[in-house]
Design brief:
With 126 residues, the chain is mostly helical. The protein has a domain at 8-54. The chain is built from 4 helices and 3 strands, in the order ββααβαα. It has a 3-stranded antiparallel β-sheet, with no helix packed on it. A hairpin with a 5-residue loop joins strand 1 and strand 2 (16-18). The longest helix is centred in the last third of the chain and has 44 residues, at 63-106. Keywords: Membrane, Transmembrane, Transmembrane helix. InterPro entries: DUF4748. This is DUF4748 domain-containing protein.
Amino acid sequence: MPLRMSDSLFNKHGGVVREDSAKSSRREPQKSSTRTDDRRAAEEEEEDDGPEYIPRRKAKNPMTKIGYAWMIGLPTGIITFILAKREVDKNRLKQLKVRQRMKRSNEGEYEGSRYRRHTEEVNMGR
């Protein structure tokens, strides 16, 4: 359907708002004896309420920014988690080795001269 200058209006975003003459003038439903014609007329009247918006340029998809955030954030989070886990495991291994060395040094027979001297002196004094 060709556009006439009176049929189109420009909105503030540069798009065209077209209101067809057939849509803008509300038609009175024709009196018919069947109910289906009445239903069709009522449906057409509901659909023909507003003007039709025709954009001049392609709209940007708002989900692209969210997609980029997921593309960057998910792998970064996974890599950060793996590196942190490695660091924790290294520290745990160091602590385990230190504990094992301490246990080994405490095992076996050794002379606790500090405590024996004290008990010998007490026994001699009697």
